[in-house]
Amino acid sequence: MKRILILGGTTEARQLAGKLAARADLEVTLSLAGRTESPVAQGVPVRAGGFGGARGLAAYLKEADTDLLIDATHPYAARISANAAEAAPQAGVPIMALRRPGWEPVEGDRWMLVDTVAGAVQALGAAPRRVFLALGRQEVAVFEAAPQHHYLIRSVDPVEPRLAVPDATYLLSRGPFREADERALLESNGIDIVVSKNSGGEATYGKIAAARVLGIEVIMIRRPSQPDVPSAETVDQLAAMVDHALEPDAERGV
Ligand SMILES: NC(=O)c1ccc[n+]([C@@H]2O[C@H](COP(=O)([O-])OP(=O)(O)OC[C@H]3O[C@@H](n4cnc5c(N)ncnc54)[C@H](OP(=O)(O)O)[C@@H]3O)[C@@H](O)[C@H]2O)c1
Predict the structure, then answer these.
(1) What are the tens digits of pLDDT across the range 180-202?
(2) What is the rounded CA–CA span in Å between residue 180 and residue 212?
(3) Which positions of the chain have pLDDT values less than 50?
(4) What is the number of the ligand 1 atom nearest to the C-alpha of 76?
(5) Of residues 48, 50, 72, 70, the one with CA closest to residue 59
(6) pLDDT value at position 195?
């Protein structure tokens, strides 16, 4: 029996965990940061909460007798990915990452690229605009620096405290989001600019496609850099890498 720890918080992590847990020779634990108040059922054993930095994670990997660490966190969860890349060699545990590719602009897209959320605030400019923020509730407070805009803020859990701006509307919703619904949302709220992370994948692409059709600008926050570890782009590719990594040396012809 081989023990696998998957750092999750994404749809793909849940899918990968389910796929690997179905195998009789693997014992899978999925790790969540514990931020979402009622996360969707994951279907495998879950542990929640931080480990206490890279050292804490290394200690956990040793204590739990982990054979393989898989980083399947969100592309913008840079700290936990850095911790994982540092902790795995410390604990003598192999690591691999599931990295979904980012979206690429296509004809008709009006993207403005910025490096940080603060850069997105600047890019909105001085004149009042109607802005759709779909960033996650931890990051929206920075927009208090530009109170002249109207904000439509969508998050899974309530934004608490509310932003200290005169004009904001809050929407609680969990993806996936369909393009047609996103288009209706942008239109009915008179949105003229969208602020987005380049999350990749299908679940949150609807707003990008809808903005393109409506000719609306998107301020796209670039991805943070990720540590260089063996990685795959899809759940199936990563599952195949796991097979290879856990095969006995003799069967691999080593
Ligand atoms: N950032 C996003 O845009 C985004 C979007 C969708 C989902 N998520 C998910 O939300 C979670 C938190 O994201 P974040 O951007 O706040 O992370 P982060 O900034 O990279 O991590 C901050 C700290 O949270 C803890 N942590 C993060 N992910 C964890 C996990 N899967 N299991 C256990 N501890 C974890 C770690 O604490 P310790 O140092 O104490 O171990 C880490 O140092 C991640 O699981 C991520 O996959 C993030």
Answers:
(1) 999 999 999 999 999 999 999 99
(2) 12
(3) none
(4) 1
(5) 50
(6) 98
Kind and range of the H or E element at 212? helix 206-214
Instruction: Please report where in the chains the tokens 């993207």 appear, as a residue.
Output: 111
For the Cβ of 33 lying below 6 angstroms from any atom of ligand 1, the answer is: yes
Q: What does the pLDDT read at residue 137? A: 87
Our mutation pick for probing the ligand 1 site, out of 4, 12, 73, counting the most ligand atoms within 8 A of Cβ, is 73
Spatial contact of 125 and 119, defined as CB atoms under 8 Å apart: no
Is the pTM of the predicted complex or chain greater than 0.85? Answer: yes
* Residue 48 phi, psi dihedral angles, 5° rounding: -135, 145
Q: Which pLDDT belongs to residue 247?
A: 76
| Residue 100 beta carbon below 6 angstroms from any ligand 1 atom | no
DSSP 25-86: TEEEEEEE-S-SSSPPP-SS-EEES--SHHHHHHHHHHHTT-SEEEE---TT-HHHHHHHHH
